[in-house]
Amino acid sequence: MKLWTTALLFYCCPALSCQWPELTFLVGVNKPPYIEVATKTGYELELLQQVSLKMHRCAVFLHTPNGRLLELFKQGQADFVSLQRTVPDGFSATLPYIHYENVLITRKDQQPPVKTLADLTGKRVLAFQNAHLFLPQDYAQLIPGFASYQEVVDQQQLPAMLLKNRVDVLVMDKNIFAYYYQQTAPGDTGLQQLPLFGTNSYHLLGQDSWLVQRFNQALVAFQQSPQYRQLQLKYFQQADQ
């Protein structure tokens, strides 16, 4: 299923107490626990805010769907663009600043059980948008053999779909799953995660190599601080992610 989304920019202003120059970031749309647009909170936003403050800058976030991030950045919309894995000509990459780990999620009583990617054949699979592009090629090649397959933007209802047996397998980031699973069925232990894809690391892109260097220095300083561990515990209940 293809979902088309109009790219809109939502402007998150810096804190009123911040008197330093602005540093603008093109980032994705609502994706808790990483980004919560309504409250201007989330792991990714707060991390970038803290790094910006160490640079004596005020972070400003421009939100747009992930598929439009690089396109808008090339038009000069911001100082940095988030969630990038390549380095096009003319741009500089920061150090990795965020990590995602996509997993398979099934019911513990799933029969026959899913233990490998090959076991997805004949299963009803629901995944995050563009999963076929971001996950290994082995996954994309298996999709024609699924009983049904959809990729969705809004992942809020995915745990409920699995709990109600409307699908057999979810494919999503483990932290996004944990966030919505806790909201949907707090205390439930009927689902399990299978870490078959490994961890993906993402960097920012910038056009100003000097600004990229300053960001890297500030990022390393923040990652070595107690506040970095506290931020991870706040959103993931564990550190070193």
Task: Give an account of the 3D structure.
With 241 residues, this protein is α/β, with parallel strands linked by helices. It contains 8 helices and 11 strands. Strands 1, 2, 3, 4, 5, 6, 7, 8, 9, 10 and 11 form an 11-stranded mixed sheet that branches. α1 packs across α7. The longest helix is centred in the C-terminal third of the chain and has 15 residues. It is globular and about 55 Å long. The two termini are 32 Å apart. The N terminus is likely disordered.
Features:
241 residues, 8 helices, 11-stranded mixed beta sheet, alpha/beta, single chain
Number of strands: 11
Q: Helix-strand pattern, N to C?
A: EEHEHEEEEHHEHEHEEHH
End-to-end Cα distance: 32 Å
Helix content: 25-40%
- Tell me the Rg in angstroms: 19 Å
Strand content: 15-25%
Oligomer: single chain
- Please outline the major beta sheet: 11 strands, mixed
Helix/strand-derived category reads alpha/beta
Identify the overall geometry. Answer: globular
Number of helices: 8
The poorly predicted ranges are 1-7
Mean pLDDT: 92
Quick synopsis:
With 241 residues, the protein is α/β, with parallel strands linked by helices. The chain has helices at 43-54, 69-74, 131-134, 137-142, 158-163, 174-184, 209-223, 226-236; strands at 10-12, 22-27, 58-63, 80-84, 92-93, 98-107, 124-128, 148-152, 169-173, 191-194, 199-206.
